[in-house]
Amino acid sequence: MSAENGTHGIPDTPAGSSLPAGPRPEPLRFYGTTWVHHDHGYPARRAGLAVGSLAAAIAACVVLRIAYDGLRIADVGSAVSLLMVVMFAVCSALAFRHTWSTFTSRPDPDRQASLRGLLAIGFVGSLLAYFLRTFTEAPGEKLHRAEYEKAREEYEKRTTRRSGNPSKKRRR
Question: How far apart are CA 119 and CA 148, in angstroms?
Answer without folding.
Answer: 28
